[in-house]
Amino acid sequence: MDANPHHADELPVRLLRDAYLAENGFSVDSYDASRAPIAVMGITIQIPNTPARRRAVRWHDLHHVATGFGTDFAGEGEISAWELRRGLRGLGLYVGAIVIGVAAIGLVVAPRRTLRAWLAAGRGHGNLFARDLADYEGVLNMNIAQLRERLHVPARGIAAARGLHAAAPRT
What we know:
171 residues, mainly alpha, 7 helices
C-alpha cells in the first residue's frame, strides 16, 4: 500500500496491517484457523496452527508492516533472518524452528538480501514476539512511526525490494 509520503508516518498500524493482509489474500480470520497453508516450492501444505503460532503470526505480520519485507521466498527469508537476529523469545520450539527454517531458505534463494536483513536487525533491539497478545490492540492503534520507533526500524522501513508470494491476488 503506497501512501502520501507527507502523511505516511501518521497512518495507523491497523490500516497498514489490513492493507498488507488484503494485498496478500490473507485475512484476520486465518489467525485462528486450526491449520495454516504454507507454500514450499510450488506445493501448498497445511501445517498445524498451534496456539503459539496463532500468537506469533499476528506479531510476524506487524513485523512485515514495519520493515516492508515482502511475502515471496526472498521476503520471508529476509523477515525471518531479521526476526531471528532480534530473538525468538516467546515463540517456542515449533514456531522457532519455522523461523530458522525460513531464514535458511532465504539464504539459498536470496543470500545477499537475507544477510542484509540480518545485519539491518542490529543487536539487542528485540521484536514483538515476547509481547503478550493483550498488547496487540494497543500496537494496532499506534501509527507506523511509533511502531517503527519502538522496533528501531528506519522511518521508511528496511526492505529495498518487495515481492508477493505466488498465490497473492493479482490486480
